[in-house]
Amino acid sequence: MAHENLGRLPGLKFMRTLWVCEITGGPQKVSPTKPGSRHLGLKEAHRDLKISPKEFDEVAAELGRSLNFATVPAREKGEVLAAFAAHKKDVTAGYKIP
Asked: Which of 15, 26, 37, 95 could in theory staple to 32 by disulfide, Cβ–Cβ 3.0 to 4.6 A?
């Protein structure tokens, strides 16, 4: 799980920041981090992390709290969270119910 390797957190935060910037129309672009991955190929990038739906939901909640802290208007916040939620199936594809 992602939280078990705390040394990865700065990179994960950076990549998530780039992702949010890209989906909101900013000039930043996310580049695939695994050879052969396609642009925004989230399934491949996250499969080995075995992220559970519960973990995904907590990350989404933290993103919502961050957007609240930055006083992002409700409409734009909803758009970002909807874009994030749309990728839940891909991000959690590697998780197997114990």
From this structure: 37
